[in-house]
Amino acid sequence: HVTVGPIVRGTFTMVGENHGCPAFKKDTQVNDLDVMLYYWDDRDGPNFCGWWFGPKVGGDQVWAYHAMRTPTPPKTGWRVPYDGPQDPTLVISKALPQQAVVVAQPNVWGQQQQQVYQQQLLLQQQQQAYQQQQQHLRLQQQEYHRQQMEANRKRLEEQQRLRMEQMKQQQVLLAHKQEEDRKRREAMMQQQRIEQQASLNIRRVMQQLLLVRAGGLEAVEQELIDVCQKDLPGCGSQAGR
Prior knowledge:
The protein has three helices and seven strands; from the N terminus they run αβββββββαα. The chain has 241 residues and is an alpha+beta fold. A seven-stranded antiparallel β-sheet has the order 5-4-3-2-1-7-6. α2 packs antiparallel against α3 (217-231). Residues 106-110 have low confidence and may be disordered.
């Protein structure tokens, strides 16, 4: 590991025990911090049991972890950082009975693994970018579809409004025409009544003229002249009769 490797790499000397296993301390400090290699049992739970690298035995800050429960530090299989993947380049060897040497091996397999990891990470980023692009495109399509639906709805509402206005105008025109027709019929009927009455008035006097005797002829003729002058203009179409 690029960051943790320089911290844990070096020679460690046994300085005591912890939880029944030897505890080691790096011969040199890193950034004014001790580097300890120690074992912790399962008194705090199985997730904390195993071998640890950290600046203090049992401290909160740690750099690497191995879950194996062995009396001495495991040689390989360390998780670097403690919650990350296993780092095959971190190897612990034993130089003396009370010493442990930590080596960060720059082997080819580790480099290839790092390259594969970087390629996978790049592929994952590309896939995420593609998915985001597709999601953005779907959102744009949904927004376009929504706008089209909204435009169609407004167009249909406008068409319906225009049809209603046309129907109202037609109803107004029809009502106006019906009212004009009614007034015209009433005027015609009134005119017909006037003409009939005038015609009856004249006929009544003419009948009297036919029945009058010689002595009263002059008076009936004068009445006929008067009624013709009065009612003949109102006879209209019946004046010729």
